Amino acid sequence: MFNLFGKKSTEKRLLSVDNTPQSLIFGGTTQNALDIPAVYSCVNLISNAVASLPVDIFVNGIETPGHKALDFITDPLGGMTKFMFLSAIVRNMLLDGNAFVEIENDGLLLHDTKDVQIYLDDRKYILYYIVKSEKTGNNKKVLPGQMLHFKRLTNDGRGQIGVSVIHSFNKLFEEVTATTNHIRDYLDNGLNAALWLEIPGRHKPESLETMRTKIADLYQGLSGRNKIPTLTDGIQLRELNNNSLVDASVQSLKEAQLKDISMIFNIPLTLLDASSGTYGNTVEANLMFLKTCISPLLRNIEDEFNSKINYSGDVGYKFDVSAFITGTFETQIQTLNTAVSGGIMTQNEARKRLGLKELADGNKLFAPAGTPTSKENG
Fold first, then answer.
1. What are phi and psi of 210, to 5 degrees?
2. C-alpha span between 33 and 26 (Å, rounded)
3. Burial class of 318 by CB neighbour count within 10 A (0 to 12, 13 to 18, 19+)
4. What is the pTM of this model?
5. What is the C-alpha separation between 112 and 123, in angstroms, rounded?
């Protein structure tokens, strides 16, 4: 292959996402990161929020409901729904760092990140993608213009290759995993303190071992936590509870880790921990969630769609985020009424925000005094 200057170019293969160090965390796949409740909540909250938003089509800057270009998203290939399609894209971006969607003649096809390999030229720009089919085992070359490549975080200096957030903060997630394992082991013992027997007199070692074994079999673990031992001949059951300081430090560590994970995913802590939120700061948290977390993802997805999908003309995709900024129904009514009476919105535009049908004469703008003008809202 030759570049524009006539010099021979050598292509370099970038290992598939599944074989890069970022996916070797948690036993070979970032999927295991979802075993951590905070990570699961973050990924679930973000992906569901994006997938739930309506997508509007604009042709030459004018909204065009029902345009055929919307079928690419609402009816993607592979039998996926719009919700599944968008949520899977966001999930792959968050956990694997990359999401790959091939543009085919009859629609969009989402690929598993482990099936995609990236090839770079000698200047380290993407030359093409190789997609491996699990069914046939064949390889397919896909040019950059035919591959929607979504990245949330990159570390290559050019913004070309995504990197998993799990890989970027692997030390933190290793600490979270260790903490989770400690708590699990503690729960496996039924939250019981260590037990020991005080036996008066002298006894044969084998007799003591038999008694110790029977007590352990009967009263340790979850199944024995509520059993009450009956002891005779002066034998007493003692407790050794020295875990209080350890448990307190583990709880503090869990709270610190939750804050760190929420910061990594740009999610306000009050959306993950309801106990720390009130109605007032929850409303502010939703707006912050939209601004710092959701909006960059939406712009990322919109730009990739708009730059590579050209459906018979100047077509643009845009997410409708009005659901994030609407308050109570009463507040919406008051706000929309002010907008209509002030000549900012038409009645039909306001009714659309409420999910109501259009009126036959609802496209007229009103002057501030409430008198209809002759100007129609195009």
1. -65, -45
2. 7
3. middle
4. 0.67
5. 27
> How far apart are the C-alpha atoms of 252 and 10, rounded to whole Å?
53
Write out the chain's pLDDT in tens, 378 residues: 333 334 444 566 655 544 343 332 233 345 577 878 888 899 999 999 999 999 988 888 888 888 888 888 988 988 899 999 999 999 999 988 899 999 988 889 999 988 999 998 888 889 999 998 766 678 899 999 999 999 988 877 788 888 888 777 877 877 777 777 766 665 555 445 556 667 777 777 787 788 777 777 776 665 665 666 666 667 776 665 555 545 566 667 677 788 888 888 888 888 887 666 555 566 778 788 888 899 999 999 999 999 888 766 688 899 988 766 666 667 677 777 887 888 888 888 888 877 788 888 888 887 765 555 554 444
Tokens 């409901």 sit on residue: 65
Joined together, the tokens standing for residue 338 give 């002010």
Whole-angstrom Cα distance, residue 179 to residue 168?
Answer: 19
